[in-house]
Specification:
single chain, alpha/beta, Gyrase A, domain 2, three-stranded antiparallel sheet, globular, RNA-binding
Length: about 575
RNA sequence: GCGCCCGUAGCUCAGUGGAUAGAGCAACGGUUUCCUAAACCGUAGGUCAGACGUUCAAAUCGUCUCGGGCGCACCA
């Protein structure tokens, strides 16, 4: 609870005889700043006191003795509304931001605790496409949010580098891969082979069997299978890294599914020893019938392990290696059941940390025509999208600010930023229909809008040219636009905390839109630089504070905050 | 069939128990001798899918219905 709310709670405590916690729980922020800064609704008191809420509000008003920083109390209908001294408030907030700088919004609540975040996790031998963006960006955002709160974060790219599909790829490669495939292959070639395999397999079902054989060989450590697999992986990782670099996404580990291959045996044995398994339809399963779930398959009838088996082994390994406080899987909601099964399996194995594993799911990205599928080849490649975004920004710069220095860098920061922001600006559980025009629209509530606002603030500060100072006359920050802005700036730390609790980076992007639209309203209504020296100094401090908050927020989203654009 | 998610302005979305449901886009009108007009202001646009219920109070909670999406044994 902040200093301002605390003061109100204490004065209400005297007149209502309610416990502090209860009062604090009731206190609200009025919808309009004209109604005050905080409000106490009197509805619930009306039940015990048998009086109308409006009368209670009036009675409380006459009894209450407001002390600083509360300046005024009013009874507005069923609410008792509190008005904070604006000068004290803006001094308090401005100084805090000015002192903390890049650390404004940070906290130490995560000190000494580790969070594992599993995100992106694409399949090897396929291109990264636009529908891979969501996991990567939401995961990266969640990672940054937790880092801001002082947690030690471990970002893991759980590469899909294992499974029957590699058997399929090996078969396709050996049959149609060509002579000099080894030296010149790209992900495109691998992708073509994958598509071809599925086309051919429809005509010739025997191919599936061959593929299973090859995957078994791979699992058994067969030299030829192993070599081909490593080759596919190298090609893929090289291309992936290029795109992660473009997006500015960082991982602490690239331990994919194959990494757990050697651990799976032991995991399965321990599950067996606990008596959790049985054979059903020739497969080794954990029966989850009592929990109203389909069984968790550990081994197929050909003995090969599955996704779930490796996920269980991976979870144990990560707990042992990182001793996480919480582990977050940023994976699409179509895998909800899978994670419920895996978490339940972990629980049945006796791991008390099973409920520290969280599936942070998100909605599907699809075309108007339907689902995106690498297998069917109807995708938009991520690289194409990023290149196109940068290209469009480059044109806009040419048009609006042709004399800008570092055009290339800025075009990159703004273009990529636009894509990141667009992906993080709606709540994650919504399905998204991919639409080129919508993604590449840069007006209104977009990344470029936020960055542009930031650049203009930097421009003012450059023009001012003197150091920003906090020994200003805070009473000068009194217009409505100003007061609203300060208030919004004060909420940043709370927003970060909420974003962490809900695993929802969109709270940050929506908040930044709030900051920017309030700033722009202020900017258009009042001049910052003027002959009035005291007023200029006061507004400069506000400009600097706003610039700082926008920058900090953008960085959490994984975006740059260019100083000119 | 069963389970989960979604349904708010023409479109994309905020708002998830409190005061008059808000933004952006699209449409129309306006603002630049002035700190970057990638901005700002105004007009218009709503049966919060529907019904019933809980509550002093429901877009928000519950039940049901309708519509859309996803998942439900050897893919990941």
């Amino acid at each position: 609870m902040d200093y301002f709310k605390k003061a109100i709670v204490l004065s209400l405590k005297e007149v209502t005889n309610l416990p502090e916690d209860e009062i604090a729980g009731f206190i609200e922020i009025p919808p309009d700043i004209k109604m005050g800064d905080y409000a106490f609704p009197c509805y619930s008191l009306s039940k015990t006191l048998k009086k109308s809420p409006a009368i209670i509000a009036t009675e409380l008003l006459s009894a209450i003795r407001p002390v600083a920083p509360v300046r005024e109390v009013k009874a507005l209908g069923p609410y008792l509304n509190f008005f904070i001294d604006k000068a004290i408030f803006s001094e308090n907030i401005s100084k805090k931001i000015f002192e903390e700088k890049d650390r404004y919004g940070c906290s130490a609540i995560g000190a000494g605790k580790t969070i594992v975040v599993d995100y992106s996790s694409p399949n090897i031998a396929k291109h990264l496409a636009v529908h891979h963006l969501r996991s990567a960006l939401i995961g990266s955002g969640v990672y940054n949010v937790y880092k801001t709160l002082g947690y030690k974060c471990v970002g893991i790219n759980h590469l899909g580098d294992w499974g029957t599909q590699f058997g399929q790829l090996i078969v396709a490669y050996k049959k149609w891969g060509g002579e000099n495939a080894h030296t010149s292959y790209t992900v495109t070639d691998l992708n073509d082979l994958y598509v071809k395999f599925h086309q051919e397999a429809e005509k010739n079902p025997g191919l599936e069997g061959e593929a299973r054989e090859w995957f078994k060989k791979l699992e058994a450590g067969d030299a030829e299978a192993r070599e081909l697999w490593q080759h596919f992986k190298d090609i893929s990782l090289k291309e992936f890294q290029k795109i992660y670099d473009m997006l500015g996404i960082h991982f602490d580990a690239f331990t994919g599914e194959s990494f757990y291959n050697t651990l799976v045996e032991d995991t399965v044995n321990r599950i067996k020893e606990k008596g959790l398994t049985r054979i059903s339809e020739e497969a080794l399963i954990i029966d989850l019938e009592p929990y109203n779930m389909p069984p968790c398959l550990l081994r197929k009838k050909d003995d090969a392990t599955l996704y779930a088996t490796r996920d269980i082994a991976a979870a144990e390994y990560r707990k042992k290696t990182y001793n996480f406080e919480r582990m977050i899987y940023v994976v699409g909601s179509e895998q909800k059941l899978h994670f419920r099964q895996v978490f339940k399996a972990l629980e049945l194995m006796g791991h008390d940390w099973a409920n520290h594993c969280i599936h942070v799911d998100f909605g599907l990205m699809k075309f108007k025509e339907g689902k995106m599928s690498t297998r069917k080849g109807n995708v938009v490649l991520l690289e194409d999208l990023l290149v196109e975004a940068v290209e469009r920004i480059r044109k806009i710069i040419e048009e609006k600010n042709p004399s800008l220095e570092n055009k290339e860098t800025v075009a990159h920061e703004v273009g990529i930023g636009a894509i990141i922001f667009a992906n993080l600006s709606t709540k994650r559980n919504k399905d998204v229909v991919f639409d080129w025009d919508a993604v590449l629209n840069f007006e209104g509530e977009t990344g470029p809008y936020v960055q542009y606002t930031h650049a203009r603030l930097c421009s003012i500060l450059r023009k001012y040219g003197k150091p920003v100072a906090t020994d200003i006359q805070y009473e000068l920050l009194k217009e409505e636009e100003t007061v609203i802005l300060v208030k919004i700036l004060s909420q940043f730390p709370l927003i970060i905390r909420k974003a962490s609790e809900a695993y929802e980076p969109s709270l940050i992007s929506n908040y930044l839109i709030d900051v920017c639209s309030s700033l722009n309203r202020f900017y258009n209504a009042h001049r910052v630089l003027s002959d009035d020296e005291e007023l200029t100094r006061a507004r400069i401090l506000l400009v600097d504070a706003t610039r700082q908050v926008i920058k900090n927020g953008l960085n959490i989203l994984g975006m740059h905050a260019p100083e000119r654009m």
